[in-house]
């Protein structure tokens, strides 16, 4: 859970007859970008700032989850910086600047760090008949990138990560709030990860939906476990009673200890998980789970078997994992939305303006 790589993913797809043109477009995009076009850069920055803020309005719970998780898992810290509330605030600040030359210089510098041959990793999915043509075009494509030498290479070492769970609040002019509470989980192939995933499904269906939506009046909410990131999350969206919902998250853990789960309920929870992990994928997505997350077919099959073997006793054990983290204050919370006095006052919440 503590190891990860940072990178930029650029993807494309085409018909076999357009393979050459696809590589030409990719080369033009990566090697011939005109960073000096100030008006175009201004438009992109303004557009990104607007789009990201609109995204928070639509999916604030996802931003809350990312921020809360960033305090307990290093890879999620990177996700927060480049795609979370930190990036939203950064883009809005960037949209107010007039110092575009400074931005241009930094973009060129970043480009020189990233776009070198040794830093590239390539994944190609194609028919057997297109392999040779892709190999020829890929070799030609790679020759346009410089080799890194000692004089122009820049070693980069990730800072040492320290867990720093917190209660974070982002005041925004919304009539309702988005919330998330995250717990650190287990590596992908550890059997406890499957227990946590089934637990999340049971909590969402049999407790959280009723408590968060029907009683608290939120538009929706639930629990989820991400096997790749190892993060267990509670969340709510468009929630008028966020502080009550935070109590609901705690109560959900206690609820599991006293709840009997039938074989049918266990089976339905597992089925809902398999419907997502074994859902049909496009040809372009084949192999990407290994390319991006280094999860191979053997690991995926092991996880399927672990999911099938989860019992009611395993669910109780998984709840104890969350309970222990709750008692140790290892969970992290984030709320995005209306700045109510009970949140802003008292010093219990860290406010990000």
UniProtKB/TrEMBL annotation:
GO terms under biological process: protein processing
Peptidase M16C associated domain ranges (all copies): 2-94
Span of domain Presequence protease mitochondrial-type C-terminal: 169-335
Gene3D superfamilies the record matches: Metalloenzyme, LuxS/M16 peptidase-like (3.30.830.10)
InterPro entries, sorted: Metalloenz_LuxS/M16, Peptidase_M16C_assoc, PreP_C
Gene Ontology MF: a single term: metal ion binding
Cellular component terms (Gene Ontology): mitochondrial matrix
Protein name per Swiss-Prot or TrEMBL: 1882_t:CDS:1
